[in-house]
Amino acid sequence: MKLWTGRFQKELDQTTNDFNSSISFDSRMFEEDIEGSIAHATMLGQCGVIEPSEAEAICRGLEEIRSEIKEGKLEIDPEQEDIHTFVEGELTQRLGSAGKRLHTARSRNDQVALDIRLYLKKQADSLIEQIKGLLKVLCKQAKENAGVVMPGYTHLQRAQPITFGHHLMAYAEMLLRDVGRLEDAKKRMDANPLGSGALASTTYGIDREITTRLLGFSSTTQNSLDGVSDRDFCMELCSALSIVMVHLSRFSEEMILWCSWEFKFVELDDAFSTGSSIMPQKKNPDIAELVRGKAGRVFGDLTTLLTVMKGLPLAYNKDMQEDKEAIFDAVDTVRMCLTAFTPMLDTMKVLPENMRKAAAGGFINATDCADYLVKKGLPFRDAYKATGTLVARCLELGLTLETLPMEEYKAVCDVFDQGVYEAISLEKCVDDRKVLGGPARENVLEQVTRVEALIQ
Ligand code: ARG
Prior knowledge:
binds arginine
């Protein structure tokens, strides 16, 4: 049965009904829809818009419907247009005329604007918790590998020595900002649109602050057209989620590289890697690759939301029904990615010897060699040039700065003495980088302590 009986003489064409309906994807908001209706009915009763006894009957009926759906006793009818229609229809079937009063001073337009906000607030909270879970694992791994020397890269070329703990904590900083962005997005979606009606509020003497309080919102939307028209909170959440996926995809890419034979810095646990159907030797980082790939999907969701909303006249337009699949997909995808990524990182085996070996090649202590000369009084540019000449000489001789004999050093610059060998030892290069935010072991441990305190 359609809601708009009266004006119409025919039932909606079946295929058009399927096309028009959103119940296949909005039924996941049944709890929020019922919660919103209970608040609305309570408020109508308190304001004297409906009889208090009717309000009570409505609330009881709605609670019954909620528990029956949860227990699997009541099936959501896929033929209904949406979850709002289904719940109201079900209530009316059970209560008769009292059920018909629920929709007084309300429209599906403010109902849907409410339900998505309630639903996404919860989702944002649970995603924040998940990111904190990943942050905990990052802190654990960083603590264990605080002093593990590895090459740091720019342009994917070995650049300067860092520690693996430092590298991991870089992701912790990004994820902390992601948490902040999700919290911000949550703040702005935390406004109650109920009472906006279809677009122009209502002539009934309702009190919107009551539903705001009952539903736990921190504020009430201040313009009825805006309350039902915008989906900026979906776009904002999806933007924040897209940035989470940028971070996860970069992290995944590095995991993939680190797992390769070319690097072999880490090895994934068997439980979080896959084999090949044909190559018996293969151990593939499929999980990391999928996370990297799914970033594209979340960006697609953001593009969908932006494009659906672009150019829409106020207020509600049916186009806006397209918001839900996109934002739900983004939320689901990020949840799945975090669920898979976190234990993969937790169980990853770190191979410090391989990192150390890679750090020993590629002249990543060349800057430190130049700095050694600077500390002896040379201008940095002269020291830079002398070190460059030494690197070229090493390449000629097939040596490293550590193994290059003293006479070669002296031939380029007579300021060099035996002390250079200590100055360019990788451990010292890392230990001396103790500036705030630096890669030295003690700094990494400080960074871990700070992050651990922030995610308590
Ligand atoms: N199912 C719709 C949506 O998801 C909400 C209902 C409002 N529809 C309407 N024709 N006024 O956006």
